[in-house]
Amino acid sequence: MNDLEICYLPAQWRRLDPCRLGPSACVVIDVIRATSTLLVALANGARGVRPVAGVEEAFTLKEHHPSALLAGERGGVPLPGFDLGNSPREMTAERVGDRDLIVTTTNGTPALAACLGARAVLTACFLNLDAVAARLREIGPPWMILCAGFEGGFGLDDAIVAGALAGALDRDHALVSLYRSVRHDLAGTLLGCSAGQELVKAGLGDDVPFCAELNRFALVPTLDAEGVLRAG
Fold this sequence. Notes:
single chain, alpha/beta, 4-stranded parallel beta sheet, 12 helices, 40% helix
């Protein structure tokens, strides 16, 4: 096995062989916006974030954890009956401090679900890029990066972050060149990609420059044995 594998299409991570997954430290990227949002929630004092793939599962968990906040979206739009959407700018200390969250998103939380059984599961975005790279070095290879993608296909935004992370790990990969070709204007590049354009159309375009900031936080969301993301 190579010490770094990048799944840049959802079709790749949906059919991961447990024999490959089990020894790997997995990193999920959904920069616009799930992994950015989850990071900000934990940075602003959320006790833990439980990612789930489906809306019904989220409501079922809410019945068992009535004090938890529901957060999520479909197609970029906040879900009816939920307390919060999927905007990192919503995750203020006043809203999420000392609270538990149950989160479901279109792309990011299914990718996290696909990692169950891995040696370690982390989330990455531009906001914590260097911290994730440092943690991966501590854990050691093999490493596997999962790009959440866009509407079941390739997501340019996540591929760029994957390239940035591979570069930070001093690994040679074609996506490193992709990142280096656009790093002078990350906000503009993300605004121009499909996920960014979807948010602009939904009136949520201000989230994109926020998600394009590099290394704002030195925190690495890490999935524990109970399937809850904790600040690490």
